[in-house]
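Appendix B. One record, verbatim.
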Amino acid sequence: MTQHHSFHLDQAGHSITADVRVGHTAEVDLLVDGREVGYRHERGDAAITLSGELPGDPSYPFTVRIDHPRYRARGLACTLLMEGREIPMPEGGLAER
């Protein structure tokens, strides 16, 4: 059974969302202001990282890390790494599909 998790955080006037689907594999869509800026499809238990940047002058690079997507299917951790800080991203909802 595939589970869907959505993590969201507003940062520097922009929205960052990580949509995660976990089943036999993990798929992650990374969105900034509702637009897809990254996608990963992974097997295994390693953390998944995706990089993006927030628009602006200058732009703000960031990384989102999803920890242990397969073994923690009901307790995923999502962290925003930006400007030397680690900011937990709260989960906005969980739906089984």
